[in-house]
Amino acid sequence: MESDEMHFSAELFSWNFAIWRHMGYLDEQKRRLARFIISMPTVVCVLVGFAFFMSKNDLEEDIYNFFIIMVCFTAILRVLVVLMRQRKFLDLFKVIEYWYIELQLQNSENALEKLKELTKKARFCTKYGLRCALLVDVFIALQPMITGYGKLVADVKFPGIDFHKSPIYEIMYLLQTCWVLPITTFSYVPYVNFLLIFISFGIFAIRDLQRRLEDLCLMDDKDALDNVKRCVAYHVRIIKFHEDLEQFFSLMSLLDASLYCVTLCMMLVYTTMESCILKSFKQLPA
């Protein structure tokens, strides 16, 4: 896929599109690179899973470990879904590109102006969203050094290996901060941005269809009939676009919602238990 073939898509999706191409997620010639990139997050996710099920940590630490597992697992799963259905995912970008070219050929100035506004907003929001995510990564990476040497970004365990002894600790810490954190961020965040931008483009298409229907009152019968036929075909394209998005993103969205609900429930249980313990201590006789 050449960049000039996806001029508008590359502009609309900005850094999300560019970085996924460089990482091999959207390049059929770089699938081995993509698999290598997600190999370490996969290993760390498994090791954190061992720590979650084997150790006897406080509930607070278990919630944190479960959250790390959830983020890594969903990020890895997103990449695998994209790699397995890479051609289908690339077709979504091509649909938007052809849509934009068609609007240019029709010289639809109002629609093109709306697309420029959409592109500007998408680039602005995703750019600052990335900056916020990177700031969170820096905080998470430095947090073990601040709280005490010997801690890791995510607690990992494996039978027969002590990850808190030098030099294994330093190696694991560097792998987590320099490989797992950035790769997880650049796998998780762009996928969410893609979904939001696709939805925003779909909303634009619906509003453009609404505008076309409103123009019927300004036409004579013959032109109005032709416009209705074009609007019907346009509506069919919107429905097909919606079905493609639902087919590609619905399962991951359901998984995200389910896992975040589990995390929220664990946090509520922890908060309730902590408040009950504090209340029982206050009721003890002095």
From TrEMBL:
The chain crosses the membrane at residues 33-54, 66-84, 128-146, 188-206, 248-270. GO terms for cellular component: plasma membrane. Its main location: membrane. It is a multi-pass membrane protein. Keywords: Cell membrane, Membrane, Olfaction, Receptor, Sensory transduction, Transducer, Transmembrane, Transmembrane helix. One of its GO terms (biological process) is signal transduction. It is found in: Cell membrane. GO terms for molecular function: odorant binding; olfactory receptor activity. The keyword Endoplasmic reticulum does not apply. The keyword Membrane applies. It holds the Pfam family 7tm_6. This is Odorant receptor 30a-like1. It comes from Anastrepha ludens (Mexican fruit fly).
